[in-house]
Design a protein that fits this description.
Number of strands: 20
Structural class: mainly beta
Order of helices and strands: HEEEEEEEEEEEEEEEEEEEE
Number of helices: 1
Strand content: 35-45%
Largest sheet: 11 strands, antiparallel
Distance between the termini: 59 Å
Length: 256
């Protein structure tokens, strides 16, 4: 009986300690250098992502929001279960409800420079039972860590295998896109920052034009500044032409 109990205990411990398959904390295809400096806490890495870059959950879990004025600034902790957590510091803002369940690749915030920060970047940690761990991405250790910027870099595949969450489509925007409450509204409600963002669906609306470039399609999304569930013009998409609305993989975004 004792041997059976011991086997069950060992089996449970192994399961509890198994690490998720963590991915980079920023969107598919983006490449940023990383390093660890001597004053950094635990086993953290700093990724040199510019301000406004979406910060993504590197594995599924529950996302919790915090603020520390003289340290981490706005930061998110994702609890992955089994004692595993990831930390994301210095965010300019949050992109989920506090305590929300998030999937791998879901946007949880925006890269910023809040708290005790030397400039916009993603401070990232992996912890097991509160102890910082050497960071693994896709099962590969990033150690030994470089001590200076530009020495080593990492290209993300977070979200590359499809949409990060059912009903969401990744798109690149070449400029900040004004948001509106509907595809026909002219009263701006906020802004979707240039970069990689997600949208839900598209609807036909008023034309946005600049010279020969135009688009009647509008995309439903959550703004970086402003309320959720707003609309931006597909004119701001980086890769597709007039009256087209496709995601970064070339998939036509469905009608709402």
């Amino acid at each position: 009986m004792l041997s059976i109990a011991a086997a069950i205990c060992l089996s449970w411990s192994a399961s509890a300690l198994a690490a998720p398959n963590f991915k980079a904390p920023y969107p598919c295809g983006q490449t940023y250098s990383y390093y660890h400096h001597s004053s950094e806490v635990r086993q953290a890495l700093d990724f040199n992502a510019p301000g406004g870059t979406p910060v993504l959950a590197s594995a599924a879990g529950s996302a919790w929001q915090y603020y520390e004025a003289n340290g981490a600034g706005n930061y998110v902790v994702v609890d992955h279960g089994g004692g595993w957590k990831t930390y994301y510091f210095h965010l300019s803002g949050f992109s989920t409800a506090n305590g929300a369940s998030v999937s791998q690749g879901q946007r949880i915030g925006t890269t910023g420079n809040t708290g005790n920060s030397f400039g916009a970047h993603i401070h990232y940690e992996q912890l097991l039972n509160g102890v910082g761990q050497v960071i693994y991405i896709n099962g590969r250790s990033l150690a030994p860590y470089p001590g200076g910027s530009g020495v080593a870099s990492l290209t993300s595949d977070n979200g590359c295998g499809g949409n990060p969450q059912p009903g969401r489509y990744w798109v690149d925007t070449f400029a900040n896109a004004p948001g509106y409450a509907s595809p026909t509204s002219t009263a701006q409600t906020g802004t979707l920052y240039a970069g990689t963002n997600y949208v839900f669906c598209k609807a036909w609306g008023r034309e946005i034009r600049n010279g020969t470039a135009f688009n009647h399609w509008w995309l439903k999304t959550d703004l970086d500044v402003g309320p959720a569930g707003q609309w931006v013009s597909a004119y701001y998409l980086s890769r597709w032409g007039n009256d087209e609305a496709r995601d970064n993989n070339g998939v036509v975004i469905p009608d709402c």
